[in-house]
Amino acid sequence: MNRPQSIPLSLGLLAVLLIVAPADSLAQEQCQTAGPLSPTQTLRRLSLDLLDRSPSYQELADVDMNPAKLAEYQEQYLQSQRFTTSLRDHHRALLWPNLNEIEIVPQTHTLYPMEITPGDPIYVAPLRAVFARTIGGSNLFMPCKNEPAKFDAQGRLIMEPMIVGSATVAHVEGWVEVEPYWAPGTRVKVCGLDALDADQAVFCPGPAERYPFTAPICANFENTAQSVGLSVEKTMVDCEGPLATLAPECGCGPNLRRCTTPQTAAKIRETMLEQMLRVADTVIEADEPYHELLTKKQIEVSGPTVHYMKYMSRLNFDLFADPDPTAPAHEIQMNYLDEGWAPIVRTTRHAGVLTTPGYLLRFSTNRGRAHRYYGAFECGSFLPNGPLPAPSEPCSQHEDLTKRCGCDACHQSLEPMASHWGRFTEYGFEGMTEEKYPLSALDICQRPIADFETLFRCIRMYELNPVGEEEPFRFLLNSYVFRTDEERNYIEQGPARLVQQSIQSGRFASCTVEKMWHHYMRRDPTPKERSEVLPQLQTSFQQKNHNLRELVKEIISLPAYRRQP
Amino acid sequence: MKRIYPWAIAALFSVACSANEPEPYIEVLNPTEIDLVDQEGNHQHHPAVPGLNIRSRHARRLSVKQLERTWEQVGEFPAGSVVIPQNLALTLGQPDYLRVTEPSFEPSPLFMKFMVDLGAILCTNIAQADAQRGPGQKVLTLFTDQDENLRHLILRFWGVGGKDADPYIPRLKQVFEESSKAPLTSVQGWQAVCLALSTAPEFLLY
Q1: Which residues of A touch B74 (CB under 8 A)?
Q2: What phi-psi label fits residue A222: left (phi over 0), alpha (psi between -120 and 50 degrees) or beta?
Q3: pLDDT at residue A335, rounded to an integer
Q4: Which of A305, A336, B31, B50 has the most crowded Cβ, counting Cβ within 10 A?
Q5: Which residues from chain B sit within 8 angstroms of residue A92, using beta carbons?
Q6: Of B162 and A15, which is predicted with more confidence?
Q7: Is the entire prediction scored with pTM above 0.90?
Q8: What is the DSSP string of A375-438?
Q9: pLDDT of B52 strictly over 80
Q10: Is the pLDDT of residue B194 over 70?
Q11: Among A532, A533, A565, CA closest to A551
Q12: How far is C-alpha B101 from the chain's CA centre?
């Protein structure tokens, strides 16, 4: 859009005032609202509601000349791809797609362009700078030098001491040129440490004088490891795994594939969210039963997501997203720049959008996942049944929230619901197979523990230190704690069971009808409409195999929809 | 903040009147439900309006996305060429689904301020684009006859056609004439009409 240079402000205001202020003759007219809309205005309403745009002048002129054309256009709109697209905002309002707060890769693997020479950026990861270059001094962030990196006879990067006064404040290197995965055929300057491409490197190599900012973290790791008879310091670790953060010689890998820039991270997040919306698109487009949105196994993946699954998803220590054999996106042959979409068929407990990475990361706890599902697809909400009692009350002492006073009103429903996601990692999106995550920690978390990553999984995923009522559940996967036999069955079946139950009870249909009613009528139904019109719509929706397009058609055919406001 | 009901605004400004159609269901509202609130927050009981006894779809203002696509449509701009910046979209009620999860469709004074600005920008852009378009393809001056052109613009912007457009013609004609007096030109007159049309409730509400 270009800024205008004409239309003086006073003229603009005059135009607005003249048209907005009703003429006397019009104001005196006995105005009757709620009459039927004219055919052209009906067309405008249909076009805006079904296509998110006003009709073209040609469409309006056609209907103005021949009102019978209205029905033709309505059908054309309903069958168009733009109709599917117009429902995206509705699905956004259900799924809340935003991953901006999720650190999909650790800061050690996030490159930012730094312009020491204007127009000639050098990419550097600020946190790696602190972890791997800085020793002391007042400036913690120490980038590389603005000169080519040097290597020794063995091809190892030379780090040179930077001395301020008489003190060494950092060890720094120069830059190298790399062809990045996000722009093949070009070369960018990257600090030498960040550009390292080893597959494995030494974890916490020490000494503390050389790496003062990682030394306390390394000591904590080592203490934890030693408590179970492991040692982790100075061991070789996988540079595409979570321990790479503390292995200074693990860089961004070939073509920088293990690191993001702000732009590539945004693109990866965007495609994860787009993946969810495409599930909805395909269901509507193909007139599949609308509940397939929540149950279908097939989804599509795109280049940025595949790249992330292959090279980055394991890097963040706080994100549990190992390559998932039940959703094999990492096996697809696509590179980062492939913007097309390829289908993959997921297995076991995967269920529509409810187990996509986008949904699982947006709602990172099982309770959060269940809560959003409940609000969006069952039109339910949780309301406390009163104020919380004093913490000293015996009733407040229960560890089990379904029994704790003040919490029980919601959690008696929420906990069983949440258990349907019990075999998906919280704070991640990995399907937790029985092989990798057996029900009991006794199989993998007893000495000798295989490695530090396994130890970390044991600590995060299993009930190793139960308290009070948790004692009978010692060593179980966290999601099984306090669950009854019936609820364990929910965990085994996954979210699709919850959806099936909702379909059978009619809650899914009634909620969909209510949401669609609100979407197109722009208001809540009156009590009379709720008791007479909505049940008819629901019955019809169920009889027509939960076809959303047909439901929309019925709503926009109601006389109430076609009246003036 | 006091709530201004969009349907009430639409009802106040609506001028298209016609007879009731036979209805399969008609619900008589409890009179206490009809409670208009003016800009100062004073509740006013509107004089009897027979149509208010019948439930209809509520009026709602255009969403950010609808505004973008609608401007492309009325201005004959290429698809995807009208883009409201993300931060402005948030201000205009589009949720980011992180801090804000519910869209807002309030026709607030802030929204109207932006619509006047947007109208000024885009009406000028249409005039500039029209200068490059051949006869029969122009938006603001498709017809040489003034009344015919006004009818065309009312239909294009508002979807109001036929006799329903009659009451608007004299007022828009006045806008055109006042805005095209020397030293202003007829192009500026049509731009002013475009601005009047695009800032009216008939355009922004539906």
Answers
A1: 54, 57
A2: alpha
A3: 95
A4: A305
A5: 95, 97
A6: B162
A7: no
A8: HHHS------SSPPPPTTSGGGG-SSTTTSTTTHHHHHHHHHHHGGGTTB-TTB--B--TTTS-
A9: no
A10: yes
A11: A533
A12: 26
